[in-house]
Amino acid sequence: MKRRTVIKSGAIGLVSASLPKITLAMGSAKKARDAEYDYILTAEPAKARIASGGDSDILGFNGQFPAPIIRAKQGKSLRIMFINKMDEPTTVHWHGIRIENSMDGVPFLTQAPVAAGGSFLYEFTCPDAGTFWYHPHMNSVEQLGKGLVGALIVEEEEPQDYHDVIVGLKDWRLKKDGSYLQLSIPREAFRDGTLGTIATVNGEQKPTIEVPAGERLRLRFLNMDSTRVFNLSLRNPDAQIIAIDGSPIVNPIPLDVHPTGAGMRLDVGIISPKEIGIEIPIFDMKGRFGVEICRLKTAASTSKRSPKIGIPALPENPIPAPQLNGAESLSFVFEWAGALSPSDAKGGVDHNFWLINRRAWSDHSHQDLPEPLAELTLGKSYIFELHNATPHHHPIHLHGLIFTVLESDKKDITPFHTDTILLEKNERAKIAFVADNPGKWMFHCHVIEHMKTGLMGYITIV
Ligand code: C2O
Ligand code: CU
Ligand code: CU
């Protein structure tokens, strides 16, 4: 049975970003639970005040920025009716979800593009709890650059004793008056990517976020920017990393500075001070110096629960453990046509600049499918040996699977699960996973300009 609700576009204020859930009064409790998480989501042109000097023409989910926060429950199905109210095709990708291939939202690879005025029912189960996000996978420099990015929170089967704080990060390429600067500058696309000029946290510039005093907080950082790496720090010895890219850390580790590349997430646990009005700044570290991105401020807590002690680990997700003995190893080299001219004869963008295993896939629409980078056998374990042979960092992301980072030649690794690995310049790393999800899965850099200029491919699992 399909049930849906209609969200009037633009009717929801910027502050309340959550979409109403459908709760059915009728029927058994189980039925009500099954129907709890249906959403209607649009992508549409809208106006938003991002810059101080004037409104910007944005592309917004439900016409909003920040986009609605979608909440789902682990192990439960999630149904989202997506309506494309833009004048160009798009798709919606659910980043980090070990999803059924046909719901992965990659045009031509997993579905036909959703045409202007068209709709598509995304219906899937979220096997893992954690901090995930959603965004289009088409004309991404513009569609993501102009606002189509949103948080997807999958709640644990067992409720966790944390107060959720979403910290959604996105920079905009805007002038002070709210008009756009060129979204991508070729010279920058061939380096670390074109940075934004106005940084927003949950849609605001350097906001102060109220949090309850004396509570155990779960700060869910989402780097939904197209380019930037945030070196996140609270400069507070008590802050602990409890999850990386949605996957819980078995033994939470103190957060010193954690590099979080485009597309990546970080969950940090901390107990807020008991006193009201205490401010906790959050920084993006540039070497020893911190640039404040936002701050928390304690306010009276409504909960009358006893004081919180310690930062408990989150329950592990059901990620299958790869058999490392006898796993097949495949090597992927991320290269840089650095010797070539970064622009073509007419001064335009070279769409074959970045290479994976000497190949570029830069077709904007994905319409011409190249051969897969690798064909994997369903159920087998694989080790990917990644080599970033470029002088730039790349957050390398794999769809449909969650992998284990085993080792790196640049840092000591305690193996952890993730969907995106930030490779430093010249870094070599090994990742492993069980190829248990059949289909065609994108494997690309999440610096959107890198992906659009070649650093993109896919693997198949059959
Ligand atoms: Cu956020 Cu192809 O992914
Ligand atoms: Cu993804
Ligand atoms: Cu890259």
Structure description:
This protein is mainly beta and 462 residues long. It folds into three domains: 3-158, Cupredoxins -  blue copper proteins (Immunoglobulin-like, Sandwich); 165-299, Sandwich (Immunoglobulin-like); 328-461, Sandwich (Immunoglobulin-like), CATH 2.60.40. The chain has four helices and 30 strands. It has helices at 29-34, 140-145, 186-189, 448-452; strands at residues 38-51, 54-61, 70-73, 77-84, 93-95, 119-125, 130-135, 150-155, 163-172, 198-201, 208-212, 216-223, 230-233, 240-244, 247-254, 258-260, 265-271, 279-286, 289-299, 328-336, 354-356, 374-376, 381-388, 394-398, 403-408, 416-418, 420-423, 428-434, 439-445, 456-461. It has a six-stranded mixed sheet with strand order 10-9-12-17-14-15, with no helix packed on it. It starts with 28 loop residues before the first helix and ends with a strand. Mean pLDDT is 88; it is low at 1-33 and 341-345. The structure holds CU-O-CU linkage and copper (II) ion (2 copies). One copper (II) ion is lined by residues 394, 445, 447, 450, 455.
